Amino acid sequence: MASKVGTKTRSQIREFDLIRTLQQRHGRKSPSVIRGIGDDAAVVTSEAGRWSVLTTDLLAEGIHFDLRTAMMADIGFRAAAANLSDIAAMGATPQYILVALAIPRTGTSDQVQQLYRGMMAACRPHHVQLIGGDTSASDCGWFISVTLVGMVPPRKALFRSGARNGDLLYVTGTIGDSLAGLMLLNERPPRKTQRPGTPTLSPRHQQFLIGRHLRPTARIAEGQWLSSDRLATSAIDISDGLSGDLRHICEESHVGAELDLGALPLSPACRAYAAARRLDPVALALTGGEDYELLFTLSPRHQAQSEQAAKTHRFRITCIGAIRPARHGVQAVGPDGKKRPLPITSYEHFR
Predict the structure, then answer these.
(1) Relative to the CA of 223, which of 31, 195, 196, 216 has its CA 20 to 30 Å away?
(2) Is 294 strand, coil or helix?
(3) Stretch (H or E) spanning 210
(4) Rounded to whole angstroms, what are the CA distances from 339 to 9, 229, 253?
(5) What's the mean pLDDT in 290-297?
(6) How many Cα atoms sit within 13 Å of 65 on the Cβ side?
(7) How far apart are CA 244 and CA 242, in angstroms?
(8) What is the CATH number of domain 15-152?
(9) Dihedral over alpha carbons 201, 205, 207, 213 (to 10 degrees)
(10) Higher pLDDT residue, 244 or 22?
(11) Which fold has domain 168-341?
């Protein structure tokens, strides 16, 4: 059923009308797509010798998104961005997307269309084509499953397992913004008063943080740069939180790490939110997932070259620590210079 996009819900939605609509609006023609939406399976061509990179994510209403705080287009955008970020972390180029939906009986055709508009808004800048999927009924909310297919030259894919003792630890962009944005969305009602002496949060900062949560940026170009120039020794995207995702690199590479908390890149908006709510911005950065920034390691001998190249490409990268032997564990260096074990505060299903 790989290229069937239809529905079996008991609502006003009609399966084959939806197929035709999606095919007309999003089923772009290209030489690489032999058969897309409308058949039992999609057929595509690829360059001989290139590695295929495949990823999939399942989003469940009430777990990954809340219709009270996000529009369907934003939910679709984030669903696509999560998969695009996985492709970015591998240093690959995204090419095709497949979408499977479970729609509650209260779901409407307009909601489905808005969802797809959001997904394609995230995919369009990277020329990703919708080639199929499936749809079903649901008795307990929306479920969105996205599969993304990408390509990378042989032996240039980035993995979590390549970090070595002495490598430097870097992150793109700023972190903690998405969690701050989510917390703002969940404030009911919005705060209208502040304690005496507490800084206020400007509308500009609020808009930035909410935008970082609802419309995150997948670092495709940064991942391709790290892959093509063979700079990074390992990489992962920050989807669950820095404290947990760093451990994934350490576990897969059989190393430890030393994280400099004072070096974490925090946006002015994240700092302002933390000050206004009397929170620790570093805690937001360690805990918050779904920033979809790239966490990567590189050899010290490539530091100057990489930082200069990043400036040339206008990529923001920040050195936030170093890789240590496995016996070192994962340590955090605080403002006082003391090292302490880094607690896991990231999100984890079933925990």
Answers:
(1) 31
(2) strand
(3) helix 203-214
(4) 55, 34, 22
(5) 96
(6) 24
(7) 5
(8) 3.30.1330.10
(9) -110
(10) 244
(11) Phosphoribosyl-aminoimidazole Synthetase; Chain A, domain 2 (3.90.650)
Residue (of 272, 259, 288) closest to 202 by Cα position: 272
Amino acid at 76: G
Residue linked to tokens 């340590």: 331
Which residues of the chain form beta strands (DSSP E)?
A: 33-35, 43-44, 51-60, 93-104, 129-138, 143-152, 168-172, 232-237, 256-260, 294-298, 317-324, 330-333, 339-341
Cα 147 from chain centroid (whole Å): 14
Residue 301 carries which DSSP code? G
Give domain limits for the chain: 15-152, 168-341
Rounded Cα gap, residues 299 and 168, in angstroms: 6
pTM of the model: 0.87
pLDDT at residue 91 in the model: 95
3-class secondary structure per residue, 117-153: HHHHHHHHHHCCEEEEEEEEEECCCCEEEEEEEEEEC
**% pLDDT > 90, the chain:** 71
Count the neighbouring beta carbons within 10 Å of the beta carbon of residue 20: 16
User: What six digits make up the tokens of 14?
Assistant: 């009609």
DSSP, res 262:
G
Tokens 């690199």 belong to which residue?
249
Over residues 3-26, mean pLDDT: 53
Identify whether the C-beta of residue 67 lies closer than 8 Å to the C-beta of residue 101: no
Distance CA 75, CA 139 (A): 19
Q: Tell me the torsion sign for CA atoms 151, 154, 156, 160.
A: positive
pLDDT, tens digit (0-9, with 9 covering 90-100), for 166-196: 999 999 999 999 999 999 999 866 565 555 5
d(CA 104, CA 88): 32
